[in-house]
Protein: SNase domain protein
Organism: Sandaracinus amylolyticus
Amino acid sequence: MVLRFSNRALIALLLGLTGCLGEPEPVDDGTYDPEVGNLFEGSIQLSDQRVLELEASDLPSTPAPCQPPQRVVITNITDGDTFAAVRESDSQPIDVRMIGVDTPETEKRNDETGEITPAECYGNEAWAFTELLRGRYVWLTYDAECQDHFGRDLAYVWVGSGPGDMWNRQLAARGFAEPLTIEPNSSNAPVIAEDSAAAQAAGLGLWSACE
């Protein structure tokens, strides 16, 4: 007998195998405005239903994206700007590096030598913020170049379609990341730089903790 699974059923199975059992409860207190998206202060409003109801055409686009948007489920967080996910379209696992931001590194262990590199200042806090997305659906949109030399997808991460729903911007605006522009993926560099400058001026996150 051949068992056939829908993509979402297969994703649910994969999440179970990676320890993400069950669908996380939505974190949405009813104040979310889809035109604005999440605010850059206070609690984050998350909802899988919101993400699943969005179509690719609902999302802001860059001038010349290298590929169409992809909906994924996040399965593991490496650090604040990097994670593993499963694509909904074909159930394939991918690694993703967020465009335009650079969060401090978390603790790393060298598999060959066993040497442990301690976490950088505010690395654990940035990881914990993006950990809110583990087990959740998000949309990925792309810029001019799709992958880096490590084979990771380079993407903007969306939990809705409003300006404040881009996770890259949330990291910058809340002081979890510094801006990092690597051409040719620079379509959102100006707004991310503005978010980061505002966080620095207010002494948020790493801008005060890591002086």
